[in-house]
Amino acid sequence: MVVHELRASAKLIQELDEIARVAYPEEGCAVLIGHAKRDATGLDTVLPARNVAPVNRRRRFTIDPQVLLAAQKAARRRENGVIVFFHSHPDHPAEPSRSDRSAAWPGALHLIASVTDRGVVDLAAYVLDASGRFRQLALAVADRSETRGIA
After folding, report:
1. What's the structural domain count of the chain?
2. Are 67 and 47 in contact (CB under 8 A)?
3. Residues 1, 36: contact at Cβ < 8 Å?
4. Can you tell me the distance from the alpha carbon of 149 to that of 72, in angstroms, rounded to the nearest whole number?
5. In which region does residue 91 sit, left (phi positive, over 0), alpha (psi from -120 to 50) or beta (all else)?
6. Is residue 151 one of the residues assigned to a domain?
7. Inter-residue contact 33 to 86 (CB < 8 Å)
8. What CA–CA distance (Å, rounded) separates 46 from 111?
9. pLDDT tens-digit series, residues 99-118
């Protein structure tokens, strides 16, 4: 299944905004769970995670393995369950970094937030394709008018 769009509620986006703002100036992270349908993936659950990177948490993240395990179990219990990785980039664009590229695997879905001392300023969705390149996906937010803090 080829994913062309990630869909999320304004409430879910607010949860991601909070994770990124609280973690700042370090990278915040979470695992999202959703379901795949045709060419879109709907996201409905956020599992906040500690950034357990052993060094340089301002530029690196490692999702707490316990949260990752819980997300994998939850996704398996669903029909067409999907996991999406979220992390923030403090004072940097919402674009995959070199370390993001080296840690990801083909088909992995990612949401990346650009966060400053004033909060999240951008949020972008990506998938790592089979050639090892990140391809940006559309991100549809239901009732975007309710979303504050995300440009």
Report:
1. 1
2. yes
3. yes
4. 29
5. left
6. no
7. no
8. 12
9. 999 888 788 899 999 999 99
